[in-house]
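S.,

As promised, the magnesium ion run. Input:
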Amino acid sequence: MRFKTKTSTSNATEHCEQPLSSEKKANLPKHVAIIMDGNGRWAQSRGMPRIEGHRRGAKSVRKTVELAASLGLEQLTLYCLSSENWKRPAAELSFLMYLLEKYLIEERKEIMRQKLQFSVIGRSDDLPKNILKEIDTTIKLTAGHTGMRLCLALNYGARGEIIDAVKIIAKQVQRGELDPEQIDEDVLSSHLYTAGMPDPDLLIRTSGEMRISNFLLWQISYSELWVTDKHWPEFEKEDFEAALQSYSTRNRRFGGLSST
Ligand code: IPE
Ligand code: IPE
Ligand code: MG
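Predicted complex:
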C-alpha cells in the first residue's frame, strides 16, 4: 500500500510515490495514537545497553512524525513516558530526560518547518524544569500553526488523568457552579488533559504486548487496535502503512449495526 504525501517539501515524499485515492484518503484515521514500546528489548537482543534502544527509538519518532504529517493525519499522539515509568532505575530515567530535552531542542526546527501544532498531556509540571522550559517554548512557537497536531504523552497515566478531572468537577459542584445531574460524557471529556482533541481512531502498539498500560483509557473506548511484534526502534514506514491499511478495512460500528 502506498500513500501520497501532502506536501512535496517533505523528505518522506520519496517513499510515497503513488497517489492516494480519495477512497483510501476517506478511510485514513484522523487521529493515531502510538504506544512506542520495546526500546529496551530491541537493544538487549543486540547485546547493547537499554539506553541505546531509547536513542534509536528517538529516530523512529522523527520518521514517524514526518510520515504522519505528510499523509495528512490531523493528530499523532505518542506515549513517551508513563507515570509508572518512574519505577525504573535512576540512570535510565536520567538518560530518558536527557534524550527528551535533546529531542525538544533539535526537532524544533522540523516541527516549525512542518507547521505542526505541539502539545503535551500528562502531569508535565512534575517534569524537570529544563524540560518544561523547552516544552513551553515549542507550544508557544507552534500555537498559530495549522498543520498536524503532535501531542506527546509525558508523565502520563490515564487513571491519574481521570482523577484530576474528577477533582476539578467535584470542586465545581462544591462551589455550586455545577449540578451533579449535568455531569455527562462531554463534561468529563472537557476536563481531561485531552480536552478539545478528537479521540484516537487508531491505537498502535509495538513490541507485541496485548495491553494498554494506562494509556488514554477513556479516549480509546472505540479506537481500533493494531499491534506489531516489531520493537519501536525497528518500526518503519511499511509498518505504519500496514496499520493504516488494516484500519481502512475495519467496520466501525460504535455499538450499532453495520451500514453495509
Ligand atoms: C518504551 O520502551 C519506552 C519507554 C517506556 C520509555 P521500553 O523502555 O519499555 O522497552 P522494553 O519494553 O523494556 O523493551
Ligand atoms: C508503555 O510501555 C509506556 C510507554 C511506551 C511510554 P511500558 O513498557 O511502560 O509498559 P509495560 O510496563 O510493559 O506495561
Ligand atoms: Mg516496555
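The chain has one domain: 9-156+198-248. The first helix runs from residue 22 to 26.

- D.
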